[in-house]
Design goal:
The chain is mainly α. It is 61% helix and 0% strand. The chain has a single domain, classed as Orthogonal Bundle (434 Repressor (Amino-terminal Domain)), CATH 1.10.260.40.
């Protein structure tokens, strides 16, 4: 049976990381949504795995949180390997 990408074991580490990066940047969901020109509910859905984040969205999320995409990706890979 095929599962959706956001339910994959390796993907499950990403939503908490998204929230962590946002909180480290001192942003609320509403603040981040405004920076990304998305509603607060979109941010919430990304952080709770109700919505899959693609690579381009991950890049702009990182940049909005003042994290380079390279550092963000290293953090994801470290979590996957743990």
């Amino acid at each position: 049976m095929v599962t959706k990408a956001q339910h994959d074991r390796r993907y499950r580490c990403l939503p908490p990381l998204l929230r962590e990066m946002r909180e480290e940047a001192g942003l609320t969901q509403r603040d981040l949504g405004a920076l990304l020109k998305k509603p607060q509910s979109w941010v919430y859905n990304c952080e709770t795995a109700n919505r899959r984040v693609d690579v381009t969205e991950f890049i702009v999320w990182c940049e909005a949180c003042e994290v380079t995409p390279q550092v963000g990706l290293r953090r994801v890979l470290k979590l996957i390997q743990a």
